[in-house]
Amino acid sequence: MVQTLVFGSAQADIIEPGLGSSFDGIDDLIFAGAGNDFIDLSTVDGNVRANAGSGDDILLVGSQNSIVGGPGNDQLFVVGNGGNTLTGGAGVDQFWVVNGEVPSTPNLNVITDYSLLEGDVIGIGLGGITPTDVVITDSQNAFGGAIVSVLGVDVALVAGVTAVDLAVIDGAGIGFNNSILIIPNAPVI
Ligand SMILES: [Ca+2]
Ligand SMILES: [Ca+2]
Ligand SMILES: [Ca+2]
């Protein structure tokens, strides 16, 4: 396997395997740079690391990859079996850890920098889902964090917070139909 370096421009780039570039989505390094970029790694299961740089970026990720939104209001979507590392960076970031399908087996996506202060949200997008389908518990591992479970399957580990820090709400009330959002439990003064 050859590690390919993929560089975006200062403008909005669309980056995905096989699209005008030589990278194959295995062991690659991606730097999208400034601008509102779109990075689609949803078909990739291969240890890709992507950094979207500044701007309001959209990243789709499959399994076993690491993505960084960087500065700006980013949207990170997990499409696949999980096991990804998700970092939003500064800004109001959305971490969509379930999109249309719940994996059949637990495979935690780790959200490294969920912020209780920046307006970050964790999204569960699934038709017919209700708030009671989403359960948040404290992680039992040595590093702490909170575990998000959807329909009995553990889908995300939220580092740096505990279960009581987070609230589960129906997204329909605020413009996100067919979704559940996880937000800070109480406004931080
Ligand atoms: Ca760019
Ligand atoms: Ca960017
Ligand atoms: Ca960000």
The number of helical runs is 0
Order of helices and strands: EEEEEEEEEEEEEEEEE
Distance between the termini: 50 Å
Ligands, ions, cofactors:
calcium ion
Task: Show unreliable segments.
Answer: none
- SS elements, strand count: 17
Q: Summarize this, please?
A:
By secondary structure, this protein is mainly beta. It has strands spanning 5-7, 14-15, 29-31, 38-41, 49-51, 58-61, 66-68, 75-78, 85-87, 94-99, 109-111, 121-125, 134-138, 146-150, 153-158, 166-170, 179-184.
Give an overview in words.
The chain is mostly beta strands. 0% of the residues lie in helices and 37% in strands. It is built from no helices and 17 strands. It has strands spanning 5-7, 14-15, 29-31, 38-41, 49-51, 58-61, 66-68, 75-78, 85-87, 94-99, 109-111, 121-125, 134-138, 146-150, 153-158, 166-170, 179-184. The strands form two sheets. The chain has a nine-stranded mixed β-sheet, with no helix packed on it. Strand 14 (146-150) and strand 15 form a beta hairpin. The chain starts with a strand and ends in a 5-residue tail after the last strand. 40% of the residues are buried. The mean pLDDT is 92. One calcium ion (CA) is lined by residues 32-35, 37, 52-55, 57.
